[in-house]
Sequence to fold (288 residues):
Amino acid sequence: MIERIASPTRTKQIVGKYDFAFQKKFGQNFLIDSHVLNKIVRSANIDKEDVVIEIGPGIGSLTQELAENAKEVIAIEIDKMLIPILEDTLSEYSNITIINEDILKVNLVKLVEEKNNGKPIKVVANLPYYITTPIIMGLFENNVPVESITVMVQKEVADRMKAQPGTKDYGALSLAVGYYSEPYIVANVPPNCFMPRPKIGSAVIRLTKHIESPIKVHDEKFMFKIIRAAFNQRRKTLVNSLYNNLNNELNKEKIKEAIEKTGLDERVRGEALSLEQFATLSNILKER
Fold:
């Protein structure tokens, strides 16, 4: 029986053995609760057919659980000080590849082609809070062949991903996640499940990628430009937000006309629009 890495005692032993210093710049908080790890693996539906990319494996707590359930795990770790630790803690496993790279600089499309013949993989991660959004949006926008993304994130970020129109958490991230995937919050995770303990709560969220987006839009990039402009000054009306943040590309009258043609009041704010309404609005504005 291989000893589990995800326990307070074992984690302390590993950290002490290597005299490892936690790097604040990498947002390192290691999971020490095996129940949470099992929940992540179960919710990601990992089986022996799956090739999994894990982002930020740390000392290998989650990597170990993934390796026991998946066909292959590719663990991408930015901190070179963790590489010898991972090679030690995961030495019993032959189905793990450890890559010492910044995930934002890895050509994941090429990696999936090499490791899984271009077929969709699953992404699982305990993400550093400071870089959550760039990682997730990079996976979507770069068209990485992904079936699902199951990640531990800051609780307020998970709430923003799943937020509905008209709520305080609703914004550009909610719309982007909804455009590319179906979000589902698996569990809330308290700070005492980590070492060191973060100051805020976390949540596990699964993003199941749409095979085909339910929203039809003429120009995806233009729609997200409209969305970002709409939330740049979220307390202003949509007319003023778009006019002020699109570098005068469109005059106010054309914006008002497009909003009315979408079936909305010209005094509406961006936070009230659904993804479908943003798509309709951007299609109309694109024609103009």
Notes: Strands lie at 30-31, 51-55, 72-77, 96-100, 121-126, 146-154, 181-189, 194-195, 202-209. The two ends are 66 Å apart (CA to CA). The mean pLDDT is 94.
